[in-house]
Amino acid sequence: MQSNPQPMDVSIVIPVYNESENVANLVRRVGEAMLPTGRRFELICIDDGSADDTARQLENLATINEWLNPLYLMRNYGQTAGLQAGFEAAQGRLIVTLDGDLQNDPDDIPALLDMMDERADVDMISGWRKDRKDKSISRKLPSKIANGLISWATGVELHDYGCALKVYRREIIQEIKLYGELHRFIPALAAEAGAKIIEVPVRHHARTMGSSKYGIDRTFRVILDLVWIKFMFRFLHRPLHAFGGVGLTFFTPGMFIMLWLTVQKFIMGADIGGRPLLLIGVMLILIGVQFVAMGVLGEILTRIYHEPEGRAQYRLRAGPRVQQKKSPGVQQEKHDAPPES
User: What's the structural domain count of the chain?
Assistant: First the structure.
């Protein structure tokens, strides 16, 4: 009788794109960090359609490292699609994400995993590059602006949304679907799914090989994505409140204009046919009606989304765990940044 396979403890998900200079060192560093822990782990490297020989190197490395599981995307889909592919392939009860440029330190992973095991009430640990080593202001300034905007718009306040080093419980990842450029907002999406998030300082290193894939234009993309995130968080299940509110803003002054013109026409005997105010009133009413109609259509689509496949509008979580009393003289440890190497 064949025994059941041992469950996977940790899945480390890393999208890579044109990282041929880093990928061998990346795999080696992850192995050096994880093998001594005794945890059963897998490293899922997703080659996002690299134009260099990253894919070939991953294929060769997989033959000598049984815990390496490369995935090869057909073309360059972007970091969000790469992460989603890795999440869907991951088998671990804990899932770790990391960038492929080794600016985050793989040696921090074991400490974060231990912290997650100790904190049963935590669903996600987000890294914080408290002492960033980036020299270029073209990376520091956009990151600072983006962190502030995302924290303000989503209500999930983190110092460093852009830090790729994060640890998730599998149950939370299964509630998140990524598309477009939503990889920047994973903490906010996790919080919307009910996750409790803590932020922990981690080490950060300057890039020594390869080139950065980010620039100042990322800030403008973040601003556009925030429009969708803000709408999704507030109005995804009640679109009529969003479109209907805008519609009434146009419709109400339009109706007052038309009522005033009606009084002038039938009571005061004024000629209103050639007045621009008549055209403005009609346009405001039509625009208002169109927005309200869009809200009604949105409500219909929301019902279609929830009802046929039985998608719940809420999720339940287990009640608070009763903690055992600590023995006298035992002090609770305070978690901080992993020790410097």
Answer: 2
Query: CB neighbours (10 Å) of residue 244?
Result: 21
pLDDT at residue 327 above 50? Answer: no
Q: What is the average per-residue pLDDT within 82-98?
A: 93
Q: Are residues 230 and 245 in the same domain?
A: no
Asked if residue 326 is part of any domain, the answer here is no
Q: Is the pLDDT of residue 95 over 90?
A: yes
pLDDT at 255: 93
Do residues 254 and 288 make contact, with C-beta atoms less than 8 angstroms apart? yes
Contact 117, 219 (CB under 8 A): no
> Has residue 176 been placed in a domain?
yes
Average pLDDT over residues 12-31: 92
Residue 129 predicted with pLDDT over 50: yes
Phi and psi angles of residue 269, each rounded to the nearest 5 degrees, phi first? 70, 20
Report the interhelical angle of 109-118 vs 23-34 (nearest 10°).
40
List CB contacts of 152: < 8 A, sequence separation 6 or more: none
250 and 206, same structural domain? no
Distances (CA, A) of 25 to 22, 33, 63, 208, 285: 5, 12, 16, 12, 64
CA dist 250 and 283 (Å) reads: 9
CA distances from 130 to 133, 198, 323, 325 (A): 9, 14, 31, 34
Q: Are residues 166 and 64 in the same domain?
A: yes
C-alpha span between 303 and 305 (Å, rounded) = 5
Length of the chain: 341
Q: Which domain holds residue 282?
A: 239-306
The answer to whether position 329 is within a domain reads: no
The two tokens of residue 249 are 């803003």
pLDDT at 276 over 90: no
Say whether both 43 and 88 belong to one domain.
yes
Kind of pairing between the strands at 10-16 and 94-97: parallel
